[in-house]
Amino acid sequence: MVRDMVEKKIVWEKWIDPLNSNIDEVEYPGHNAPAYDQEKHTEFLSLDPNFEEKMMDEDADYAEDVSPEKQLIYNPTRIVSTGHGFVSLTEHSYASKHFDFWTLHYNHDITKDLLEAIEKCEGVETMNPLTRYRVRIGLNRPLLKSGSFNLNEIRKNVEDCILNFSDKNSLAEEIKELLMFDKETIDYVKSVKKQIKEANWAIYVLPNGRVETILASESTKTFNEKLELLNKTKNMIGGKILRPTAK
User: Are residues 148 and 123 in the same domain?
Assistant: First the structure.
């Protein structure tokens, strides 16, 4: 019940490639990587990212005595072992070169139905649930750079989708609880619910269709006293009390 009363919050975090291919982008937003136009005559593979620098230092003296035509230029290439064998990592191998990845943190359960709703948001191209409270969302980097999509608008749409989301199960339970009332009462209760912004609330629907509402931004002594009074009244005369449910 405590989780039901927690205010919904969303936090965005820039996703860092495990291979650190986008570490500069994360640490230094707006940086421009230098372009290298050197012709590479011979390439050697190495897992050491500092391989080229070490080799150039060791061969500095030797390079002075070798003609430019015979000089070797070392270009370290990182390789990884996959289920299909060893694969060389080039700039085209990194997903972060093609997608703008963000990790979305949400302080309520990220359910299957919620994931399906997020996936339908405009601008969301890929989505990978990571844990109970976080999901990685991939946006199309070329389209963002071209201005076809706006990053802030996409994130705002995703946030609105999550905060206004109603789980299918909770919605079904809510309708089931109100079946004893007429359609006019049910529609009124739904309209009242949509207007509620507070994290903690209770709607008491009396047997005669009258509706009582108590609201609070957080659990307080006054709110709990009023809620207890509603529960005592319900036990005496009947009716239904609706409370927040975790999404």
Answer: yes
Structure token digits, residue 28: 């230094």
Residues contacting residue 65 through CB under 8 Å, at least 6 positions apart: none
Same domain for 12 and 115, yes or no, is yes
- Of 146, 163, 180, the residue that ends a domain is 163
120 and 150 within one domain: yes
Distance of CA 247 to the CA centre of its chain: 15
CA distance 189 to 242: 10
Same domain, 122 and 8: yes
CA distance 39 to 114: 51
The β-bridge partners of 81 are 86
pLDDT in tens, 152-192: 999 999 998 888 776 555 555 566 667 778 888 888 888 88
Its pTM stands at 0.47
